Protein backbone atom coordinates (compact mmCIF):
# COMPACT_ATOMS: atom_id res chain seq x y z
CA UNK A 1 0.00 0.00 0.00
CA UNK A 2 1.35 3.47 -0.84
CA UNK A 3 2.22 5.56 2.19
CA UNK A 4 0.37 8.74 3.09
CA UNK A 5 3.73 10.49 2.93
CA UNK A 6 4.24 9.59 -0.74
CA UNK A 7 0.62 9.97 -1.77
CA UNK A 8 -1.38 12.30 0.49
CA UNK A 9 -5.07 12.59 -0.44
CA UNK A 10 -4.56 16.11 -1.79
CA UNK A 11 -1.43 18.06 -2.63
CA UNK A 12 -2.43 21.55 -3.70
CA UNK A 13 -0.45 24.78 -4.10
CA UNK A 14 -0.59 27.84 -6.33
CA UNK A 15 -3.74 26.66 -8.09
CA UNK A 16 -2.36 23.22 -9.02
CA UNK A 17 -3.63 20.00 -7.43
CA UNK A 18 -2.52 16.40 -7.32
CA UNK A 19 -5.07 13.90 -6.04
CA UNK A 20 -3.72 10.83 -4.29
CA UNK A 21 -5.38 7.39 -4.37
CA UNK A 22 -7.75 8.14 -1.47
CA UNK A 23 -9.08 11.31 -3.09
CA UNK A 24 -9.26 9.66 -6.51
CA UNK A 25 -11.43 6.91 -5.02
CA UNK A 26 -13.80 9.50 -3.55
CA UNK A 27 -13.80 11.48 -6.81
CA UNK A 28 -14.79 8.33 -8.73
CA UNK A 29 -17.56 7.57 -6.24
CA UNK A 30 -18.94 11.11 -6.58
CA UNK A 31 -18.90 10.93 -10.35
CA UNK A 32 -20.64 7.56 -10.22
CA UNK A 33 -23.52 9.27 -8.39
CA UNK A 34 -23.72 12.04 -11.00
CA UNK A 35 -23.48 9.67 -13.98
CA UNK A 36 -26.12 7.50 -12.32
CA UNK A 37 -28.46 10.49 -12.34
CA UNK A 38 -27.57 11.11 -15.98
CA UNK A 39 -28.32 7.49 -16.92
CA UNK A 40 -31.66 7.65 -15.10
CA UNK A 41 -32.49 10.77 -17.14
CA UNK A 42 -31.66 8.94 -20.37
CA UNK A 43 -28.56 11.03 -21.05
CA UNK A 44 -25.94 9.68 -23.44
CA UNK A 45 -22.35 9.97 -22.24
CA UNK A 46 -20.13 11.93 -24.63
CA UNK A 47 -16.55 13.22 -24.46
CA UNK A 48 -15.55 16.32 -26.43
CA UNK A 49 -12.21 17.83 -27.50
CA UNK A 50 -10.23 19.59 -24.76
CA UNK A 51 -9.91 22.81 -26.78
CA UNK A 52 -12.45 25.15 -28.38
CA UNK A 53 -11.99 27.44 -31.36
CA UNK A 54 -11.91 31.19 -30.70
CA UNK A 55 -14.54 31.68 -33.41
CA UNK A 56 -16.88 29.19 -31.75
CA UNK A 57 -16.66 30.83 -28.33
CA UNK A 58 -17.18 34.22 -29.95
CA UNK A 59 -20.44 32.84 -31.36
CA UNK A 60 -21.58 32.44 -27.76
CA UNK A 61 -20.51 35.97 -26.69
CA UNK A 62 -17.81 34.44 -24.51
CA UNK A 63 -15.41 37.34 -24.98
CA UNK A 64 -18.20 39.80 -24.20
CA UNK A 65 -19.22 38.15 -20.95
CA UNK A 66 -16.09 36.34 -19.73
CA UNK A 67 -12.90 37.97 -21.00
CA UNK A 68 -11.52 37.89 -17.44
CA UNK A 69 -11.66 34.07 -17.35
CA UNK A 70 -10.18 33.44 -20.80
CA UNK A 71 -7.02 31.40 -21.30
CA UNK A 72 -5.70 30.87 -24.83
CA UNK A 73 -3.65 28.00 -26.27
CA UNK A 74 -1.10 29.97 -28.29
CA UNK A 75 1.61 28.45 -30.52
CA UNK A 76 5.25 29.06 -29.62
CA UNK A 77 7.46 30.87 -32.12
CA UNK A 78 10.31 28.45 -32.83
CA UNK A 79 12.18 30.64 -35.30
CA UNK A 80 14.82 31.22 -32.62
CA UNK A 81 14.86 28.33 -30.18
CA UNK A 82 17.89 29.81 -28.47
CA UNK A 83 15.63 32.44 -26.95
CA UNK A 84 13.30 29.90 -25.35
CA UNK A 85 13.58 29.00 -21.66
CA UNK A 86 16.21 26.41 -20.76
CA UNK A 87 17.16 24.69 -17.53
CA UNK A 88 17.90 26.05 -15.02
CA UNK A 89 15.15 28.65 -14.82
CA UNK A 90 13.35 30.58 -12.11
CA UNK A 91 10.12 29.06 -10.81
CA UNK A 92 8.10 31.96 -12.26
CA UNK A 93 9.79 31.82 -15.70
CA UNK A 94 7.45 32.82 -18.53
CA UNK A 95 7.27 32.74 -22.29
CA UNK A 96 7.30 36.34 -23.43
CA UNK A 97 4.32 37.56 -25.42
CA UNK A 98 6.57 38.26 -28.42
CA UNK A 99 7.43 34.53 -28.55
CA UNK A 100 3.79 33.53 -28.98
CA UNK A 101 1.79 33.41 -32.16
CA UNK A 102 -1.86 34.28 -32.70
CA UNK A 103 -4.14 31.91 -30.77
CA UNK A 104 -7.00 30.25 -32.62
CA UNK A 105 -7.80 27.86 -29.78
CA UNK A 106 -9.00 28.37 -26.21
CA UNK A 107 -8.96 26.37 -22.99
CA UNK A 108 -12.71 26.21 -22.20
CA UNK A 109 -13.98 27.36 -18.82
CA UNK A 110 -17.13 25.18 -18.91
CA UNK A 111 -17.90 21.69 -20.18
CA UNK A 112 -21.09 22.41 -22.11
CA UNK A 113 -19.86 24.70 -24.91
CA UNK A 114 -18.62 21.86 -27.08
CA UNK A 115 -21.88 19.97 -26.58
CA UNK A 116 -23.87 22.71 -28.32
CA UNK A 117 -21.18 23.20 -30.96
CA UNK A 118 -21.22 19.48 -31.78
CA UNK A 119 -24.98 19.76 -32.49
CA UNK A 120 -24.72 22.98 -34.51
CA UNK A 121 -27.19 22.91 -37.38
CA UNK A 122 -28.92 19.80 -36.02
CA UNK A 123 -32.57 19.13 -36.80
CA UNK A 124 -33.77 16.92 -33.96
CA UNK A 125 -37.13 15.16 -33.88
CA UNK A 126 -37.18 14.90 -30.08
CA UNK A 127 -35.37 16.32 -27.03
CA UNK A 128 -31.84 15.10 -26.38
CA UNK A 129 -30.05 14.65 -23.08
CA UNK A 130 -26.35 14.04 -22.66
CA UNK A 131 -23.65 14.12 -20.05
CA UNK A 132 -19.99 15.02 -20.35
CA UNK A 133 -16.99 15.61 -18.13
CA UNK A 134 -14.16 17.98 -18.96
CA UNK A 135 -11.05 19.59 -17.59
CA UNK A 136 -11.93 23.29 -17.47
CA UNK A 137 -9.67 26.29 -17.03
CA UNK A 138 -10.19 29.76 -15.60
CA UNK A 139 -7.97 32.71 -14.95
CA UNK A 140 -8.75 33.81 -11.40
CA UNK A 141 -7.63 36.72 -9.25
CA UNK A 142 -6.37 34.23 -6.70
CA UNK A 143 -6.17 30.47 -6.26
CA UNK A 144 -7.19 28.92 -2.96
CA UNK A 145 -6.83 25.20 -2.22
CA UNK A 146 -9.42 23.05 -3.96
CA UNK A 147 -11.81 25.99 -4.05
CA UNK A 148 -10.22 27.73 -7.05
CA UNK A 149 -7.76 26.03 -9.38
CA UNK A 150 -6.10 26.78 -12.70
CA UNK A 151 -7.66 23.59 -14.04
CA UNK A 152 -10.61 21.75 -12.52
CA UNK A 153 -13.06 19.00 -13.40
CA UNK A 154 -16.64 19.78 -14.38
CA UNK A 155 -19.36 17.16 -14.85
CA UNK A 156 -22.47 18.38 -16.66
CA UNK A 157 -25.84 16.84 -17.48
CA UNK A 158 -27.39 18.71 -20.40
CA UNK A 159 -30.90 18.84 -21.86
CA UNK A 160 -31.76 20.18 -25.33
CA UNK A 161 -35.41 20.41 -26.31
CA UNK A 162 -38.61 22.33 -25.63
CA UNK A 163 -38.84 24.73 -22.64
CA UNK A 164 -40.99 22.36 -20.57
CA UNK A 165 -38.57 19.44 -20.97
CA UNK A 166 -35.42 21.39 -20.16
CA UNK A 167 -37.00 23.11 -17.14
CA UNK A 168 -38.22 19.76 -15.80
CA UNK A 169 -34.65 18.50 -16.21
CA UNK A 170 -33.49 21.20 -13.79
CA UNK A 171 -36.29 20.61 -11.29
CA UNK A 172 -35.47 16.90 -11.15
CA UNK A 173 -31.78 17.44 -10.54
CA UNK A 174 -32.28 20.26 -8.08
CA UNK A 175 -34.26 17.84 -5.95
CA UNK A 176 -31.56 15.17 -6.31
CA UNK A 177 -28.76 17.54 -5.34
CA UNK A 178 -30.58 18.64 -2.19
CA UNK A 179 -31.42 15.04 -1.27
CA UNK A 180 -27.81 13.97 -1.79
CA UNK A 181 -26.54 16.88 0.30
CA UNK A 182 -28.96 16.00 3.10
CA UNK A 183 -27.74 12.39 3.01
CA UNK A 184 -24.14 13.58 3.30
CA UNK A 185 -24.92 16.03 6.07
CA UNK A 186 -23.93 19.01 3.92
CA UNK A 187 -25.72 22.26 4.56
CA UNK A 188 -26.25 23.88 1.17
CA UNK A 189 -28.01 27.17 0.49
CA UNK A 190 -29.72 27.71 -2.86
CA UNK A 191 -28.82 31.12 -4.25
CA UNK A 192 -29.90 32.88 -7.41
CA UNK A 193 -26.97 33.93 -9.58
CA UNK A 194 -26.59 35.99 -12.73
CA UNK A 195 -26.69 33.78 -15.80
CA UNK A 196 -23.14 33.91 -17.21
CA UNK A 197 -24.17 33.13 -20.78
CA UNK A 198 -26.09 36.36 -21.34
CA UNK A 199 -24.79 39.80 -22.24
CA UNK A 200 -25.38 41.90 -19.13
CA UNK A 201 -27.07 44.57 -21.28
CA UNK A 202 -29.12 42.22 -23.44
CA UNK A 203 -32.81 41.39 -23.34
CA UNK A 204 -32.16 37.92 -21.94
CA UNK A 205 -30.29 39.46 -19.01
CA UNK A 206 -33.29 41.66 -18.30
CA UNK A 207 -35.52 38.56 -18.31
CA UNK A 208 -32.98 36.86 -16.05
CA UNK A 209 -33.45 39.57 -13.42
CA UNK A 210 -37.23 39.23 -13.62
CA UNK A 211 -37.27 35.43 -13.77
CA UNK A 212 -33.99 34.04 -12.37
CA UNK A 213 -32.83 31.01 -14.32
CA UNK A 214 -29.54 30.13 -12.65
CA UNK A 215 -29.32 28.74 -9.15
CA UNK A 216 -26.17 27.77 -7.30
CA UNK A 217 -25.85 25.33 -4.42
CA UNK A 218 -23.56 27.03 -1.94
CA UNK A 219 -21.80 25.47 1.05
CA UNK A 220 -21.47 27.15 4.43
CA UNK A 221 -18.14 28.61 3.35
CA UNK A 222 -19.77 30.50 0.48
CA UNK A 223 -18.52 28.06 -2.16
CA UNK A 224 -20.79 27.07 -5.06
CA UNK A 225 -20.34 23.33 -5.71
CA UNK A 226 -23.15 22.82 -8.22
CA UNK A 227 -25.60 24.82 -10.29
CA UNK A 228 -28.72 24.43 -12.41
CA UNK A 229 -28.86 26.67 -15.49
CA UNK A 230 -31.69 27.47 -17.90
CA UNK A 231 -30.36 29.19 -21.03
CA UNK A 232 -33.72 29.75 -22.73
CA UNK A 233 -33.08 29.56 -26.51
CA UNK A 234 -29.66 31.25 -26.40
CA UNK A 235 -27.58 28.25 -27.48
CA UNK A 236 -30.34 26.93 -29.72
CA UNK A 237 -30.28 30.22 -31.60
CA UNK A 238 -26.49 30.69 -31.75
CA UNK A 239 -25.82 27.06 -32.71
CA UNK A 240 -28.88 26.82 -34.99
CA UNK A 241 -30.38 23.77 -33.26
CA UNK A 242 -34.03 22.93 -33.94
CA UNK A 243 -36.16 20.40 -32.06
CA UNK A 244 -39.37 19.38 -33.83
CA UNK A 245 -38.94 22.40 -36.09
CA UNK A 246 -38.64 24.89 -33.21
CA UNK A 247 -35.51 26.64 -31.95
CA UNK A 248 -34.12 24.57 -29.09
CA UNK A 249 -34.09 25.60 -25.47
CA UNK A 250 -31.28 24.22 -23.32
CA UNK A 251 -30.42 23.65 -19.69
CA UNK A 252 -27.54 22.10 -17.81
CA UNK A 253 -26.72 20.83 -14.35
CA UNK A 254 -23.05 21.39 -13.46
CA UNK A 255 -20.87 19.93 -10.71
CA UNK A 256 -17.44 21.23 -9.73
CA UNK A 257 -15.88 17.93 -8.70
CA UNK A 258 -12.87 19.27 -6.78
CA UNK A 259 -15.15 21.64 -4.88
CA UNK A 260 -17.23 18.66 -3.78
CA UNK A 261 -14.02 17.06 -2.51
CA UNK A 262 -13.25 20.25 -0.59
CA UNK A 263 -16.58 20.41 1.22
CA UNK A 264 -16.62 16.67 1.92
CA UNK A 265 -13.12 16.83 3.42
CA UNK A 266 -14.39 19.56 5.72
CA UNK A 267 -17.64 17.79 6.54
CA UNK A 268 -15.83 14.58 7.57
CA UNK A 269 -12.86 16.29 9.24
CA UNK A 270 -10.38 14.94 6.73
CA UNK A 271 -11.61 11.33 7.04
CA UNK A 272 -11.67 10.44 3.34
CA UNK A 273 -12.78 6.87 4.01
CA UNK A 274 -15.82 8.10 5.95
CA UNK A 275 -16.67 10.49 3.10
CA UNK A 276 -16.37 7.62 0.62
CA UNK A 277 -18.69 5.42 2.68
CA UNK A 278 -21.24 8.23 2.88
CA UNK A 279 -21.18 8.83 -0.88
CA UNK A 280 -21.41 5.17 -1.84
CA UNK A 281 -24.28 4.52 0.60
CA UNK A 282 -26.52 6.99 -1.26
CA UNK A 283 -29.37 5.08 -2.88
CA UNK A 284 -29.02 5.00 -6.68
CA UNK A 285 -31.63 6.70 -8.84
CA UNK A 286 -33.49 4.51 -11.30
CA UNK A 287 -35.12 5.52 -14.56
CA UNK A 288 -38.78 6.41 -14.50
TrEMBL record:
This is Aminoacyl--tRNA ligase-related protein. Pfam families: tRNA-synt_2b (PF00587). SUPFAM superfamilies: Class II aaRS and biotin synthetases (SSF55681). It comes from Streptomyces hesseae. One of its GO terms (molecular function) is ligase activity. Keywords: Ligase. Residues 126-264 form the Aminoacyl-tRNA synthetase class II (G/ P/ S/T) domain. The keyword Iron-sulfur does not apply. InterPro entries: aa-tRNA-synt_IIb, aa-tRNA-synth_II/BPL/LPL.
Amino acid sequence: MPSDHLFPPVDVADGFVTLGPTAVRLRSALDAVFTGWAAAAGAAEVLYPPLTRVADLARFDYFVNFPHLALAAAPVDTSDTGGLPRHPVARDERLRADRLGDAGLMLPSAACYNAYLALAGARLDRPVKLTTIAQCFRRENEYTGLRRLHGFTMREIIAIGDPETVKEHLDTHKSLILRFADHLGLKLATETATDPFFDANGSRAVMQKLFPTKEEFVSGGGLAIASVNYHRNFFGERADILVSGVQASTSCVAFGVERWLHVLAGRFDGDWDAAYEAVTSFAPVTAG
